[in-house]
Amino acid sequence: xxxxxxxxxxxxRARNARPRDGLGxxxxxxxxxxxxxxxxxxxxxxxxxxxxQRLLDAGMPFHAHEVFEDAWKSGPEDERELWRGLAQLAVGxxxxxxxxxxxxxxxxxxxxxxxxxxxxxxxHGIAVAGLSDWARELAGRVEAGPTVDAAAEAPRLRG
Length: 159
Known about the structure:
single chain; 159 residues; mainly alpha; 5 helices; globular
């Protein structure tokens, strides 16, 4: 591979083939990384939630974000904000674990706000109110203190 040029897929779209760590940070070429989430996978909501929870529990919120992003892009229009909000929570946890306190807190709060319209219905058994509370509480701790451990802070997606 020519490392001076951007990685491209068969259609010419930019793809980054560099290995990544569990928090999605690029590693040098040739370094072993964690397995990447395949992009564009269409899953049922329960499958998305199961896979995202597995990744969150493993301390891999960046990868869980990719699962939520697939659900957001492939799901019904009336649920897109739900999945986008979940993706923002995962990215907020990612940034918080990477030490980006301002970005992490901002994304955690933004994700909690995106979930707010779904609090009463709790679609797919998602613990929306609990996730929103978790995100706001974590945002406050992130702003006030040290980097967090992604696996230790992993939220429960379902009640």
